[in-house]
Amino acid sequence: MKELLLGSILSLLIIPSVQAQYSLQDLKPFEVGKNWQIAGDVRADMEKDQTLYIEKGTGILANLPNEKRRSNLLTRDSFGDVDVSMDFMMARHSNSGIYLMGRYEVQLLDSWGVRNPRYGDLGGIYQRRRPDGSQFEGHAPRINAAKAPGTWQHIYISFRAPRFDAQGKKTENAKILKVILNGYTIHENVELTGPTGGPISETEAAEGPIMIQGDHGPVAFRKFEIKEFKDPEFHLKNIKRTLYRGEIRPLLNFNWEGMESEIMKVNTIDISDINEELGWATVHEGELTIPETGNYTFSLQAGGESQLLLDGKEVVEKSWARTQWSPRNNGPVMLEKGDHSFKLIYSKVDGWLTNGLDLFVESDDIRRKSISGAKAGIVGGSEEGPVYISAEIPRVLRSFTAIDDNGTEKVLTHVVNVGSPTGMHYTYDTSTGRLIKIWRGGFLDASPMWNGRGNAQSKSLGVELVLNKNTSVPEGYKSMGYDINSDGYPTFRYTLKGSEITDQISTNGKSVTRTISGASISGSRVVICTAPEIEEQGDGLFSINDKEYFISSYSALDLSEENGKKILSASASGNTLVYTIIW
User: Fold this and answer.
1) Based on the number of CB atoms within 10 Å of its own CB, is 537 exposed (0-12), middle (13-18) or buried (19 or more)?
2) pTM for this one?
3) pLDDT tens figures, 49-71
4) Which domains, ranges and CATH numbers included, belong to the chain?
């Protein structure tokens, strides 16, 4: 069997108790069996189950099990609270899993095209197992964010270890804080009552290794990173709250003297007992104990105006915000270990805002955490309900659509969004005749079009693949709109240099097939993809941008290069060109 691999080579950098980036130059950081190898490139066989081919080199960790070699992989280091991220590639119909602390599994599976994912599908949190072998709990991902086998996929897991008292008794369960799969959040704040099936031990602990399942099927990894976090205590003490009532002017520019006030000693930063919509302000003052000397970032989340001072210096500037907005901060400040005076000012100047106030702290090795001692009425989500559009039947919706173009938002104003019951949808730009993006999951979030003043934009409800950011109009192009066929899908029509073209796009949940027909394309070369990286995989299959997705066609595909970019083009068969995007 030919050996192959992919390769992003990272330098090995291990900072104790903070971050580990594994260069995958060798297997020294792991306890492994002979089914695990270091490689330089990897490729899946799209037609054959459980098959990966690797090439010699470094930068990729590959598992190629057989009947005799089927061991799991464990990191030699143990961890508690961690963020784990990595790229991974599944072989067709393959199975693996990432075990936090060797005990809590996030499933890796080729779940390409699954419509209703369960706990055992890609990204699912696996079930627990009773002594008699029966299973319970388990948490399915919100959507199926799986890509095709042979593509590089990305997973990020934020994990909080269980907590124990001095006698070793568990006081808090482990928790999956967040899982992001291929850019889509599939889990948030999932409590784990105990180890899932197949752990290194059924006994929970404060620390443990990261384990990757190696006995179920071939899988490969790269860009393997682990960041560990501490969880020290920040104590607020000697807190005094002053509640002011009267005419509250914006931006905290009002005279405190002479206002009606009520002073009370409190144990937390809390406004939950105040029910008035406006006409009041609070000032919390006291001491904050810093556990260790270092740089700390403080953030405020508030429904109104707020400001934070430490030792008399402003560390979060006074400003207005909505309650559901992300906490705001001014960046890190250096603080010595010990007690520091604090003053937190909050004023309610808009009755329509939800009352809410919370104070957070974070650093390079401390996750953002509330230190208020009480949530004080903070609520999540939008103040207005979302407007979602489903696609149980074919849907066609025109709107503005924004795409990210190298960090700059680009708004397209003449797009048609097409939703399919297959669960794969697309956006087409009628002003240029280009297929802009495809996505898998829900159809559209039309909230921006309806809530507030409305901005006519819609957002996809799933994992996106942006195919085209080019907004230039092709020479001789003129849109002629689209027709809706008997199945409810559009056929786009346009003229190009005076000749009429029809453009049909169909999906099956796993791929998108595009059929372009017209007399003017007969015998000509048609550009179907331009990208920094395009590589031929054989049998008419081409990898785009380091196996981000694939393109295939029954027509002959040609690969060329111009101005530093690769160009994939095809010859039409008669008056028709057909190609498929596999993702």
Assistant:
1) middle
2) 0.88
3) 999 999 999 999 999 999 889 89
4) 13-228 (2.60.120.560), 235-370 (2.60.120.380), 384-490 (no CATH)
